[in-house]
Known about the structure:
The complex is a heterodimer. Chain A is of the alpha/beta class. Chain A has one domain (26-244): 3-Layer(aba) Sandwich (Rossmann fold). In chain A, 38% of the residues lie in helices and 18% in strands. By secondary structure, chain B is an alpha/beta fold. Chain B folds into two domains: 3-200 and 224-236, Thiamin diphosphate (ThDP)-binding fold, Pyr/PP domains (Rossmann fold, 3-Layer(aba) Sandwich); 241-346, Rossmann fold, CATH 3.40.50. In chain B, α10 packs across α13 (339-346). β2 of chain A pairs parallel with β9 of chain B, so a sheet runs across the interface.
Amino acid sequence: MTTKRIFGRPESLTKTPHLYCPGCGHGIVHRIIAEVIDILNLREKTIGIAPVGCAVFAYDYFNFDVSEAPHGRPPAVATAIKRLLPDRLVFTYQGDGDLAAIGTAETIHAASRGENITIIFINNANYGMTGGQMAPTTIIGQKTATTPDGRKAEIHGHPLAICELLKGLPGVAFVARTTITRPSEVLKTRQLIKKAFEYQLNKKGFSLVEVLSPCPVDWKMDPGDAQKWIETEMVKTFPLGIFKE
Amino acid sequence: MKKTLLKGNIALCEGALAAGCRAYFGYPITPQNEVPAYMSERMAELGGTFIQAESELASINMVMGASIAGFRAMTSSSSPGISLMQEGISYLAGCELPAVIANVQRGGPGLGNIAGSQSDYFQAVKGGGHGDYRLIVLAPATVQEMYELTYDAFDLADRYRNPVMILADGVVGQMMEPAILNKENLSPSDLPEKDWILNGCQGRQPRLIRSLLMAEGALEQHNYHLAEKYKKISNTEIRYEASNLDNAQILLVGFGLCGRIIKEVQLIARSKKISVGTIRPITLWPFPTEIIHRAARKVKKVIVVEMNLGQMLEDVRLAVAGRVPVEFVGRPGGGIPTPEEIMEKIL
């Protein structure tokens, strides 16, 4: 009898154990990216850019070339790498503070120029690494370390919806928002990330996949409740779907 | 070789292109606007990459990306824009990424004005960004040097895997002079391969570029490693131009444009039978401390001349180490010290 291997570690992931918190979404999204890169057979042609935030350690977990970038600047770094090495797969992996606060200009202008790069945008509605402060994507009413009574629009402003903002830019080819709260959503996210990478490979322009991702420790929830909170509350502000393709 | 009448900012571009730089990223700011305009045209001709970035933050991070990918890359700006780049420069130094940054200085602080100035000496030489790092800083005084030092900056950057700053000023950037484009024209394929770049891990282990070192003691060790490199640079890369040090009664020290003014003062003083020696530091870091120290032994006093209110002055005083008085003639905010003002200190 022959045995067939049907599941295992993607070659694009290292064996380093993840240091992410229990219930954190980063591990799942890292694995999805690694699987897709394996499926596309691009491990040896990929350059990833890690953000500042929890996922700065992405470079310990991905088994391909990865660089750090200053906080918010991965789209600028990726822009130059892709322009100079146009046949490589170049992607950034950024959190909401990195992408939608300090790096808003870099994000919008890379998108507006139609840079042929892919951004994987992890939206967990707070600054995870620094202890759960308000993020640009913190939803109204959400309690964080710096909105102890909940985010109020009149004091803290409104949450920033990146997909809706980017979809109108002519340089943007593909924008989608997804989540990883259950296996069916994980598989959907994998399809969307694969599609985004394929847009890049086909030189179609800027692509971004936003993943609503749980941060149970900073949200002060258990992992199950965190997933439920995404599905019941977070999606009201950040509806899932493909915004442009 | 043929002499060409060139603007300093254009000579800077030609130096970069001759060195095989095919990646330029910049944002408009006076008095360096000739650089991005000229580079946009020349990069298109040469098949290079030119991006007008959305900010100086983006420019310096695009330079970082190009350097990560293994290419000779540069940006240019003027003082306020260079302030915005300091974060990126610190990362370049921390990640040991070669890059060339040209600062065609204007008057400050704040938005200041658009006249040539030398008031970013501290920022260039003493840090600017966060952390314990050094930039190699080159100070051109002529259009010819805008060409030559920019060319050399790329070699220095690659040799030491360190960012290099061209600290020019608005006057040198805007003036026109004959220059000889005397360097060998390199294309990227002429340059040696780099064994640390990220270009996809085909046939090798994946690589990582970072400055974050969280393991116990790792950052301390990284800083010692950088310090060793900086020591090597200090021992081998000091450049200066000196004249009449053996017989001088007075020593004048000035960099960039002021290095030319002190030569003029030397001639005026000679006509009044006063023997003046000059030292023009060409590398501001590493600083020519030793030659100033030795020259100061033989003179009655040292006069430092700058287009600021006394920045290099501090390094000259450290070099002179109290042996003789060190006086200062300088003008801030776009003012240029005149030979007459300097002669008053001499007489």
